[in-house]
Structure formats: C-alpha cells, structure tokens
Amino acid sequence: MTGDPIVGHRLGLVGERDPAAADLVRRLIELACRTLPLAYRAGQFAHTMVAVTGPDGRRAITPRGESVRYALIALLGLRRLPPDRCAAVLGGGDPVDLLDLIMKRIDELTSPGDVALACWVAAEADHGDLPRALRRLRELDLAAAAGWPDSGDDQIDVVAAAWVITALVAARGMADVEQHLAAARRRLLTARQVCFGHLIGGRQAAYRRHVGSFADQVYPIQALARLHASSDDPAALAAAQETAAVICRAQGADGQWWWHYDARSGTVIEGYPVYSVHQHAMAPMALLDLAEAGGQAHTGPICRGLSWLAAPPETAWPLVTDDPPVIWRKVARDDRRKLVRGVRAAVSGFAPRLRLKGLDRLFPPGVIDYECRPYELGWLLFTWLPDLVDLPDSPEPGAPPVAAPEPA
Fold it and tell me: What is the predicted pLDDT for the residue at 336?
C-alpha cells in the first residue's frame, strides 16, 4: 500500500464539482473499514449495530442479530477492498469463505431478493455454485415473474424484482439466463407508473398501493441501467432515466433524498425519515450506474445529498462520528408510531394533492436513529470503489481519527 489518497473515477467526478463532498466520501470509506469489523462475528454479519451508552456517557456500538441479506450486500462492497483491508474486516478471513457458507444454504433461502443477491455476488466472484443459485432463483421466481406459469402466488416486492434483473445481468455470459431475464424485465417495466410502487401483483392494501419508497426507485434505476449497458435496451434506459428524473426533481432543498413517493405522479407523500445510506450510497450508486450506462449524469444532486449528510439542518448533532466510528442510520420525525406516514399515505390515496402540512409542525424532524446496519456500509464501498486505484493504509491502533471535512 502506498498511502496515496483514494483514487477512482467516480470520486474524481464528484471531486471536480464539490471537493468537500469527495473528502466526505473518503472519510466515510475509512469509517466503513473501522465499523464493519464490529458487525462481524462467528462467521456472520449482524443485522444491526446499536448504540450503547456507557457509565461515562460515551456511546459505543454493539451488534445484534444476524442477516444473510446484509452479509451478501457487505460482501459486494468488501470485494472492492484490497485483500489486506478486506481480511482486516473479516478477522483475517477471506470473503470467499463467507460466500461458501451462504451458498451451502442456498436451497434454504426462501426470499427471491436474498437469492438474487447471492447470485449477484456469486457471479461477480465467479463462484462454482452460481448455477445452483440460479436454479434456486428461477424456482422461487416462477410464480412472481410475469410470463412464468402461475402457481397462485404472484406477488413480489419491487426491490426484489430489481435485484433479480441485476443478478441475471451479472450472470450473463456464465449461464443461460435469457428467458428468465426477459420475463423479469417485462415485469419491472410493466410495474412502473410515473415511478414505482412497493409491490408487484397480489393483493395490496388500498390505502398504500400507490406508495413507493426511495429504495423502490433506486434499485430499479440501477437494474435497468445495467440491463441497458449489457444489451443495448433503450426502453430500459428510458425507464431508468425517467425514474431518476422523478427523484432528482423531488430532492429536498438541502439535499435530502425523500422517503415515500406517489407512484401515480412522482410527488413526495412523506419525506422523513431521511436515511444516511440514501445520501452516501444508494442514490449515488444508482445515478452513477445510470450515467455509466449512457444516461444523464446527475452529479449535482449526488453532491447535494452528500452535503446534507455532512451537516443535516434538522439536527445540531452529527450523523458521522469517529468515536465510535459510525454513520448513524437516519434523521426522523418525533413520531414513534409512524402516524404521519400512515395518515399521508391513506389521505393521498383518495386526495392525491393533499398532504396535511400541519403534521410537520406537530411532528417536526430531528430525531437521530442511533443504529447502523452492515448493508449500508457494503453499499458505500460498492458504490465508490468499483475502479479503485489505491486506498490508504489502515490507521494504527490509537491513531487520531480522520478529520472531518468542512460542510459543503
């Protein structure tokens, strides 16, 4: 390792427009390399890392639960690190060993989304069990993919439907996936209105069938962009472009990527919570994939999203800290029962333009969720290190934390 700064095309693109945003990303990557080891134990990644306040009043983070899905997303990111940095996260282990453990359980997984992620990782790693994972994905997706035989259960969430496409695109050239991919493509494109709702098919609650989350927009943008990049698919690219335009038009004045959208119009139903991972990873990941597939480069919105994370105006407290090394999960309303999103979802179902703005005063945003999840850091590494040239050496134990950049 040379100790040179992190260098990569994506980071350079952002740095040209906003050097402070690029500095923040560098800091976040270093934090991810310090935080992820705290989430890894007994050969598995935790589901959540939660804040625990000690007798001295200082916060620490402790892992709870475990998640195959989050482990797979962490693996997508970890594979972007140099081998020594990856081994440091895994306690000296190899990411292939963790993938081996998951692939041995592939027939036990029942979520199409989880199996799609496993296929995606296996394709990138050229893993020998990829054909078996693809068979499992096809088996689980038979009823859900439009055009496949109907077995009576035709519902799938949009995120999983997008991951199926991304996984099959990654596996192209390694297996015959074209029939499955064509059906998955048709399903996702047919599901889009102005943007995407949350579920495809099945019976949905009337009060929220028109509601789609930010994740329901981001993963289809990425999937359709990658589909076009792999096969020259103008319809897929156009759908990705139009969905990206929806979220960029709706972005908050301070760079917030909002949470719930009306799939019929693309308008925001409820903005909060604002998630850190949307700001530093998921929005940049999808929008940069789109640009690299030949779509519009939304560098400005990406930089504004990062600027929000550097100094969120809803709170005086930072979301990015060095002690403990963590990116806290989100800024939310003081609304533990999630009343605002439920009411706005229901009301917008029959009165699309009504938002009951008085709820903003009754339930102001500003509450920090002192948690972090491994997938958030996996997407961070995956987003920003696809063409990594070099990464600074790990700081020595006891070394001072990386200095925070000035807010953009």
Answer: 85
